[in-house]
Amino acid sequence: MASIAPTIGRVAKSTSKSHSRNFAKVFLGVAGSAAVATYFYNNNNKNNNNNQSNSNGPRHALMSLFGGSAANVKVAKIPDGKTQADYQKVYNDIATKIAENLEFDHNSGYYGQLLRLAWHVSGTYDKSDNSGGSYGGTQIFAPEEFDPENAGLQVGREFLMEFLIRYPWISRGDLWTLGGVAAVQESGGPKIEWRPGRVDDNTAAHVPPNGRLPDASKDGKYVREIFSRQGFNERETVALIGAHVLGRCHTHNSGYDGPWGPSFNQFTNVFYTTLLGNWHVKNWKGKKQYEDDETNEFMMLPTDMALKEESYFLKYVKMYANDQDLFFKDFAKAFAKLISNGVKYPADNKPMYFKTLEEQDDS
Ligand code: HEM
Predict the structure, then answer these.
(1) DSSP state of 34
(2) Which residues of 129-145 are buried (b: 16+ CB within 10 A; e: fewer)?
(3) Which of 41, 101, 205, 274 has a Cα at 20 to 30 A from 14?
(4) What are the C-alpha distances in Å from 112 to residues 9, 66, 99, 181?
(5) Which CATH class is domain 220-333?
(6) 214-247 tens-digit pLDDT
(7) How far is the CA of 14 from the centre of ligand 1 (A)?
(8) CATH architecture of 26-214
(9) Per-domain boundaries in the chain
(10) Interval 65-124: pLDDT, tens
């Protein structure tokens, strides 16, 4: 069987610092409420952007493309005068805060938390009517906020909250997706193409319904359907789920428990090499999940195991297990697509790539 214990550069020290659920104070906690009020004030006054359509020209063209609903026209609009240098500053602040909190959550750091946040705010997308997705920053509104699949993500939103205050011109959708980019790059993953201009929808009029984010107890067919609704094929689906290399499951969020493998704070292709090892159903009172035969320390969700069970997924699992560069290339492309799903970028909105903190130290 494939070894599940590769050498990981940034190894986890054991720590008594527990996974602090104090962070999990709700978005509108006492200390946060003034800040939130300031934030909403600023946001409602910037760019007149509290609705989703910005101009009539592209809007009409898009209306016909997406079945005639003006609500689902999502044209990116960069805040006045902002350039890549401004967004690099925000990136640097997020990356610095990540680096200052490496012991968080059993030494997972915030990589997993921020990557999952970026995925869940984007993964509500439905290509059939261009609804959902990262554009409107709707995850602070019911019912999306209280979707059981989003349990625990207030931790990531709260982590990023100070940057909404410090940079009042940035939208929630831009900040949350930028957080995901920082998580991947700062943990050693590939460069991710990112574009600005998502516009806050503070009317809460276009909040996607619950049920669009995947339920981990399901099978491969279901996984294929969920990702196909967002416009992904099987190869992209397998590449995206490789994100489970980072972070861990928490019984208080999902009912599942533990990290997927030993690379939980470093972005690598180890999710696939681990998955190709031998697994058995964990003997416990919790939800059905799998445990590795070798160490009993790692876990897989039923939907992760489905990638091994279905031939239309398995070939890509093997491909990425054998070739980390290929995984990085495919993941970067699929993740950039995920975080921009539904957003229409005008021609002058060019892709941005951010330097990691390490690259900036070197230069
Ligand atoms: C079939 C698809 C998927 C299912 C069923 C699924 C399910 C889950 C579950 C149940 C958790 C544990 C949450 C917790 O207990 O805190 C989790 C965590 C996570 N997921 Fe997924 N996921 C899927 C796809 C993805 C994708 C596409 C990404 C990113 C591109 C992703 C990134 C993550 C990350 C980074 C974590 C760790 C969070 C942390 O450390 O707090 N997942 N996922």
Answers:
(1) H
(2) ebbbbbbbbbbbbeebb
(3) 274
(4) 17, 33, 13, 11
(5) mainly alpha
(6) 999 999 999 999 999 999 999 999 999 999 999 9
(7) 23
(8) Orthogonal Bundle (1.10)
(9) 26-214, 220-333
(10) 444 455 588 999 999 999 999 999 999 999 999 999 999 999 999 999 999 999 999 999
